[in-house]
Give the backbone structure.
Amino acid sequence: MGSRFNREVQYSKRCEETRMVRLSGHQRSFNQGSKLNNLFRHTLSKKEKRNYIDAILCLSEKPGKTPPEDYPGVRNRYDDFVAIHMNQTFFIHSTANFLSWHRYYIWIYEKALREECGYKGYLPYYNYAKYASDPLQSPLFDGSDTSISGNGAYVNHTGLDIPNALVPHVHIPPGPGGGCITSGPFANWTVNLGPVANVLPYVEQNPDPAGLGRYYNPRCLRRDISAFVSAGWAKDQDIVDLINDYTDILSFQNRLQGEFSVGYLGVHSAGHFMVGGDPGGDFFTSPGDPWFFLHHAMIDRIWWTWQNLEVEERTFQVGGTITFLNNPPSRNGTLDDVLDLGVNGGPVTMRGR
Ligand SMILES: [Cu+2]
């Protein structure tokens, strides 16, 4: 199996190269007098966006591989990715493996799109900073057939306290959505698993008696796109400060994931809650909204950028323990710790061997 991690690094490089090729293409057209906006807005052509969307839809039409006795609600290959994230939630967030687990995860997802659905491109990222002041202005959310669908319909609902109502360090007011999405490629998307940690009280409960959201619970995709969140914590300044000011992996990943007690949501949490809804706002089932992968590709890009500022020191730096917020207290994570995506991708160490 060689070095998956190294291939991972190659993936990121390819991704950057692809982007640069695109940018230079746009640069050419810019030099020829085309609109400045093109340089930023359409890194992928409409055709490339459509190919990516079609591959996601294809994955959701293939049979799942997860044993039904583990996750009876899995109905397709896309759900396999949701299930493994649900299953490992407490061991892959606010832990030493947070960044590398999610890097491996999105790479395996990209691999599935390519190998099982004939996708020829790479995983795109979404730079939320570009539209942080008003994400609904972004072509990504305009509800057209080259978007990932738009906001949910308006439903009267209350806001959200982070980390929770008992400890309301950060309050997110209700946004203009909250209901089912109505347009674009994912208008007929069915969310099958969860909810587990739901943020919208009217979402259909999962029948799983263990409260783990594993049973079949088909429902629409709901979003509540929040300019309050993106303008607060996913703007350029948040990303630049994060990369520049947090020079060891532990402080970097802590800042990225949020410092709630001082009222700082963090770029990672902001990327989730700027779309929010169900399953997007659910800590466990968030990959059930295809937005997840555009968000986490951006998180990976931020980490990649940070790593490359000090390649020798930062490429294999690991910090933190192996339990969520070190609760219960546990040992430090190491490069020998294993990342295992079950039916999606076999075990690999954080080091990559
Ligand atoms: Cu996650």
Summary: The mean pLDDT is 90. Residues 12 and 304 are 8 Å apart (CA to CA). The first helix runs from residue 4 to 31. The beta strands are 152-154, 160-164, 167-172, 178-181, 338-339, 348-349.
